[in-house]
Amino acid sequence: MAGRKFFVGGNWKMNGTIESGKKLVETIKSAKLDSNTEVVIAPPAIHLLLVKDALSGVEHVQVSGQNAYHKASGAFTGEVSVTQLQDAGIPWVILGHSERRTVFKETDDQTAEKTKAALDAGLSVIVCVGETLDEREKNESVNVVVRQLNAVADQVKDWTKVVVAYEPVWAIGTGKVATAEQAQEVHAAIRKWASDKLGQSAAESLRIIYGGSVAAKNCKELATQNDIDGFLVGGASLKPEFTEIVNARL
Ligand SMILES: O=C[C@H](O)COP(=O)(O)O
């Protein structure tokens, strides 16, 4: 709210085929999407250029990498660099997703290093933060996200091209969506952190989006919250209902 453009990311994760990706793009292209919402689709790396080309000319819809390596080039088998994304015309990258942190053991500092490198390469970044169930039960949610954000802020001073995704790990892919109140509480804490750390004007323009079992049936209530500026959608971004989530504010 407060003049921030609504933002909906579709993170396809490691799902789909060339055919299914093309079909999803057709669904997006044929839908009437809210022109006040910025949409970013993050297909698997091997489908990035295909999806980018298929979406070319579609207004308000861009593509994103799901991860990137901070070095520009070199002997890093299997990695794609921030510079290569930029060179390929991919304007966004998701960094610090909880699956990168938990499955691939990426640390707060690595996420911060990648975020700095991506911004330096000219990309925009969706940086993900969020607590585990254990941390929530210990009342640590805000401490955890603040720790994760502080690591990024140690390396990144200008947050103009950063979107923060709050994704409680216990809500990802589980069907257990955070209630609107639970999500708003952490989003407000993130905005307060941003105001203290980055200044009031940066905090007011920072988009803080929610991720974790967002679906057509729960997106509208979440979208009414003051500090929820959009969504990062996983499972539902692989279905036609994604377009209803994009239109959550209509
Ligand atoms: O990046 C997206 C999030 O991990 C949420 O995934 P999900 O909507 O399947 O819970």
Automatic annotation (TrEMBL):
Keywords: Gluconeogenesis, Glycolysis, Isomerase. Coiled coil: none annotated. Signal peptide: none annotated. GO terms for molecular function: triose-phosphate isomerase activity. One of its GO terms (cellular component) is cytosol. InterPro entries: Aldolase_TIM, TIM_sf, TrioseP_Isoase_bac/euk, Triosephosphate_isomerase, Triosephosphate_isomerase_AS. GO terms for biological process: gluconeogenesis; glyceraldehyde-3-phosphate biosynthetic process; glycerol catabolic process; glycolytic process. Gene3D superfamilies: Aldolase class I. Its EC number is 5.3.1.1. Pfam families: TIM. Pathway: Carbohydrate biosynthesis; gluconeogenesis; Carbohydrate degradation; glycolysis; D-glyceraldehyde 3-phosphate from glycerone phosphate: step 1/1. It catalyses: D-glyceraldehyde 3-phosphate = dihydroxyacetone phosphate. It is an enzyme of class 5 (isomerase). HAMAP family: TIM_B. Homodimer. Belongs to the triosephosphate isomerase family. This is Triosephosphate isomerase. It comes from Acaromyces ingoldii.
